[in-house]
């Protein structure tokens, strides 16, 4: 029973070929391609409005140098939201429950922000390792602590996204299993449990969108420190 609960997080394969590549490429196929016409359909208009609102909100605290990241951050946001939402459908696989994939997004992007800060303003970037007004005896300890916290950032990004989605999927499967077990014996309790399952599913939809937003928001905050 315990093994079957965690089988949903194993990467599916067909004839020995991993299907995670198809799961990653699928979101880009679902979105319509904008046209050069003045009048578009409602879906493209809604898509453009969402991207514009999100980009304006995300890049508001950044200076002009950080605006070069607008397309990258907006694309990452849409990609993560789509993958997380598709993973809530029955008989689907969620690639963002794999820590390796999330770390593959987090580490290069975090490292890029650090390299930009060290190249453009090395004094300010290194100054984040030592808060102003620190007593002299505490300087070595604080430098070590701030350095460790700096290198933990990409790990926190990847683990946060993986843990939230994994916990939600497990909880949904556990409650759904309880509904099927209780239905023949205690129908009233099963109906109440199914109501809880429905509310939890709505919560997981919100979590799928919020976690994608938090992932991109933290990257923008790391970028803000280095531009």
TrEMBL record:
<dbReference type="InterPro" id="IPR023011">
    <property type="entry name" value="ATP_synth_F0_asu_AS"/>
</dbReference>
<comment type="subunit">
    <text>Component of the ATP synthase complex composed at least of ATP5F1A/subunit alpha, ATP5F1B/subunit beta, ATP5MC1/subunit c (homooctomer), MT-ATP6/subunit a, MT-ATP8/subunit 8, ATP5ME/subunit e, ATP5MF/subunit f, ATP5MG/subunit g, ATP5MK/subunit k, ATP5MJ/subunit j, ATP5F1C/subunit gamma, ATP5F1D/subunit delta, ATP5F1E/subunit epsilon, ATP5PF/subunit F6, ATP5PB/subunit b, ATP5PD/subunit d, ATP5PO/subunit OSCP.</text>
</comment>
<dbReference type="InterPro" id="IPR045083">
    <property type="entry name" value="ATP_synth_F0_asu_bact/mt"/>
</dbReference>
<dbReference type="InterPro" id="IPR035908">
    <property type="entry name" value="F0_ATP_A_sf"/>
</dbReference>
<feature type="transmembrane region" description="Helical">
    <location>
        <begin position="101"/>
        <end position="118"/>
    </location>
</feature>
<feature type="transmembrane region" description="Helical">
    <location>
        <begin position="69"/>
        <end position="89"/>
    </location>
</feature>
<dbReference type="GO" id="GO:0046933">
    <property type="term" value="F:proton-transporting ATP synthase activity, rotational mechanism"/>
</dbReference>
<feature type="transmembrane region" description="Helical">
    <location>
        <begin position="12"/>
        <end position="31"/>
    </location>
</feature>
<keyword id="KW-0406">Ion transport</keyword>
<keyword id="KW-0375">Hydrogen ion transport</keyword>
<comment type="similarity">
    <text>Belongs to the ATPase A chain family.</text>
</comment>
<keyword id="KW-0999">Mitochondrion inner membrane</keyword>
<dbReference type="GO" id="GO:0005743">
    <property type="term" value="C:mitochondrial inner membrane"/>
</dbReference>
<keyword id="KW-0066">ATP synthesis</keyword>
<keyword id="KW-0138">CF(0)</keyword>
<dbReference type="InterPro" id="IPR000568">
    <property type="entry name" value="ATP_synth_F0_asu"/>
</dbReference>
<feature type="transmembrane region" description="Helical">
    <location>
        <begin position="138"/>
        <end position="159"/>
    </location>
</feature>
<dbReference type="Pfam" id="PF00119">
    <property type="entry name" value="ATP-synt_A"/>
</dbReference>
<keyword id="KW-1133">Transmembrane helix</keyword>
<keyword id="KW-0472">Membrane</keyword>
<dbReference type="GO" id="GO:0045259">
    <property type="term" value="C:proton-transporting ATP synthase complex"/>
</dbReference>
<keyword id="KW-0812">Transmembrane</keyword>
<feature type="transmembrane region" description="Helical">
    <location>
        <begin position="171"/>
        <end position="199"/>
    </location>
</feature>
<keyword id="KW-0813">Transport</keyword>
<keyword id="KW-0496">Mitochondrion</keyword>
<protein>
    <recommendedName>
        <fullName>ATP synthase subunit a</fullName>
    </recommendedName>
</protein>
<feature type="transmembrane region" description="Helical">
    <location>
        <begin position="205"/>
        <end position="223"/>
    </location>
</feature>
